[in-house]
Amino acid sequence: MVLGAVFLVAAWAKTLDPSAFATQITQEGLDFLLPANIVALIALALEVFLGAALLLAIRRLWILVPTASLVVFFLFLTGRGYWRYARGIEPEEGASCGCFGNLVERTPAEAFWQDLLLMLPALLLAFLAFDRGGKWPRLRLVVVGVLTAVTVLVAWKAPELPLDNLATRLRPGTEALSICAGSEEKNNRVCMDGILPELADGEHIVVMAQLTDDPFTDHVEALNEYHWAASGPALWVLTDASTDELFTFRFSLAPSFEIREAPLALLRPLYRTLPRSFLVRDGEVVETYSGLPPLERLGIAAGNESTNPIN
Fold first, then answer.
1. pLDDT single digits (tens) 124-167
2. d(CA 218, CA 78)
């Protein structure tokens, strides 16, 4: 039951943001037969099916053998990441470690040892006095099948659903300056207080964006108007853009607001899609927005609403 619960929690974390899970599959080189998004759905279905079966005490060999295979595979992936990390090979920027997606910040070493301690003892115990036959658990299998189907459906539709606060590490109540990424052991720890220390006092609106994407570039003029109006929270833009992208953006679109560079490892756990925005008051996140912020409500005069396309 403990192992089943671990599987289900891990699957839940990845179901909320299947795009990030698909990216992780690509980074691990597991999309050699099928597209990463299809592999992600198949993996989630398997993880939920086995997790729900274990949680409902279905311990037949046709459940325990694939469960053991999945545990070994998970430990192989985290062990390989740990081995590379110990030899100075850093994970790809923005990559998550382990089976819990972006919701949990872990180093490759922590991912391996925590997964080992969570899953291996529980797997061994699951084989003790397992059910060797008898009455077919039809009702429990129906429950398992329904839960698996619902999970796949939610994962398929998740990008269209308002799940950002559940699927990321950024939600109301988060201390903005305490958001960090990287390892102190490797001396590559970076935190928001080193990138935007201004968030500690007053009200600020922060937009995370990719400077080359139309959903952001189409609204630069409106953001400029908001900045010059100076009637609402201070506006900041965070991006992991390259030096060339920053130069091109500034030269071609002439932004009046300030842009701060942040590593992808810090930003990626905070969004599912870009742009994403959040309102900070005295260091605490008080509102989040999927997309660009509601500038009219935050400070632009009602008379400018017709010229400002951001709602």
1. 999 998 888 778 899 999 999 999 999 999 999 998 999 999 99
2. 41
Identify the bridge partners of residue 191 per DSSP, sorted by sequence position. Answer: 180
Residue spans per domain, the chain: 2-161, 167-307
Closest-CA residue to 177 (of 209, 200, 150, 211): 200
Distance CA 22, CA 266 (A): 19
Question: What is the Cα–Cα distance from 1 to 58, expressed in whole angstroms?
Answer: 10
DSSP label of 175: B
Q: Could you tell me which of 166, 154, 230, 237 has the C-alpha nearest to residue 195? A: 237
C-beta of residue 19 within 8 angstroms of C-beta of residue 272: yes
Calculate helix-pair angle for 36-55, 2-15, nearest 10 degrees.
Answer: 150
CA-wise closest residue to 262 among 310, 185, 194 = 194
Question: Looking at the predicted structure, is the pLDDT value of residue 304 above 60?
Answer: no
Q: Tell me, what DSSP letter sits at residue 87?
A: T
Q: What is the CATH number of domain 167-307?
A: 3.40.30.10
Radius of gyration of the chain (CA): 23
Alpha helix (H) residue ranges in 160-229: 164-167, 192-195, 214-217, 220-229
CA 73/CA 14 separation, integer angstroms: 17
- First-to-last alpha carbon distance for the chain, in angstroms, is 47
Confidence (pTM): 0.81
Nearest Cα neighbor of 122 from 64, 61, 58, 47 is: 64
Amino acid at 304: N
The rounded distance, in Å, linking the Cα atoms of 271 and 66 is 33
Distance CA 137, CA 114 (A): 32
The residue type found at 121 is: P
